[in-house]
Amino acid sequence: MTRQQRESAMAEALEHVGNVPPDIVKTLEQYVVDGRPTGEFLVAVLSNDLVEAVTRADADNLAALLPIVQFVYCNLPAACWGRSQIVADWIAAIQSHEMEAQP
Predict the structure, then answer these.
(1) Rounded to whole angstroms, how far apart are CA atoms 25 and 38?
(2) Residue 11 belongs to what domain range?
(3) pLDDT averaged over the chain?
(4) 101 or 22: which carries more pLDDT confidence?
């Protein structure tokens, strides 16, 4: 997925943020577009690890867990979430591609 495709996917996703906290939306955008690693809570969400997500969530994110999960499931590219290895591979692929593109 090219940077332009990732940006386009996120632009479309941002139309459906609902009750997702703004800081989570920003972090997910940076993760999808730039391959920027997230915190442990979002890694757990992106990895489909409910127990870990609940354990890592602060009070605000715990209260917003359902909208966050719905946003990820319905709006983020399927290739960037689902298992911890997928999350790690997404970050590595984007970061290696971005480094290759630099002069």
Answers:
(1) 11
(2) 3-101
(3) 92
(4) 22
Single-letter residue type at 81? W
Residue 103 has pLDDT above 60, yes or no: no
Examine the pLDDT at 16 and tell me if it is beyond 90. no
- CA gap 76, 62 in Å, rounded: 20
- CB-CB neighbours of 59 under 10 Å: 7
pLDDT of residue 100: 57
As given in the structure block, the two tokens for residue 72 are 């990820």
* Chain centre distance of CA 40: 12
Number of domains observed in the structure of the chain: 1
Output helix, strand, coil percentages for the chain, rounded to the nearest 5: 75, 0, 25
How is 65-102 classified by DSSP, letter by letter? HHHHHHHHHHHS-GGG-SSHHHHHHHHHHHHHHHHHH-
What's this model's pTM, rounded to 2 decimal places? 0.89
